[in-house]
Amino acid sequence: MSKPILYGPTYSTYTRSMRMVLAEKGVDYDLVHVDMIGGAHHQPDWKLRHPFERVPAFEHHVFTIYDTNAIAHYIDGALPGRRIAHPNISRRTRDEQIVEVVNSYGYKRIMLDLVLRYFFADKATGPDTAAIAAAAPAAEQVLAAIQDLMLGSDPYLVGRDVSFSDLHLAPIVAYFAGFQEGTRAMARLPQLSRWWLAMQQRPSLAATAPQT
Predict the structure, then answer these.
(1) How many CB atoms are closer than 10 A to CB 138?
(2) What is the pLDDT of residues 73-96, one digit of tens each?
(3) Into which CATH architecture does domain 89-207 fall?
(4) Alpha helices by DSSP H, 50-153
(5) In angstroms, how far is CA 66 from the centroid of its own chain?
(6) How far is C-alpha 201 from the chain's CA centre?
(7) How remote is the C-alpha of 149 from its chain's centroid?
(8) Does the predicted TM-score (pTM) go above 0.90?
(9) How far apart are CA 175 and CA 167, in angstroms?
């Protein structure tokens, strides 16, 4: 069987989420870098893979997919390894709900409005600290809402093993926790902090660290 192909840069949180899904399944794959900093996602050949000029994209045999929710569920259903989707309908639904919270609110508030202001700060003036401070409460509010959706005392978001929501959220928290706003927010969210400690023990997180 030919190896699946994942297209995207390692620094992308969404690419990392799909790499973690593949790692949790134990699936070997090829990773093809997409130079988003150089504008590769705006080129005509990439728009054939992803008409909205984002990452990642995925290919298996002649079947091509874009958008992480679709990719993750395809990997889980079509490729070998343990099933990531929770077998219980209530927990599976909660898992999907948290994924939607991450995609609809978390990425913008945490990554676009805060983390990337550090990464792409003006070299002469430094990061826009006022804009970052203004963004911090909204970023924390998303994480607080996710903590409220956690079920019981399980180590992961919806159970005793990782699900899709864990793998969508972890790459974002990995960036956010590296800044003081993230450290402060996590300190005020004890259940989510315990989740983050558990996630840091997953080989899939270590194996997919962004390449520098």
Answers:
(1) 14
(2) 999 999 999 999 999 999 999 999
(3) Up-down Bundle (1.20)
(4) 68-78, 89-101, 116-119, 129-149
(5) 15
(6) 17
(7) 18
(8) yes
(9) 14
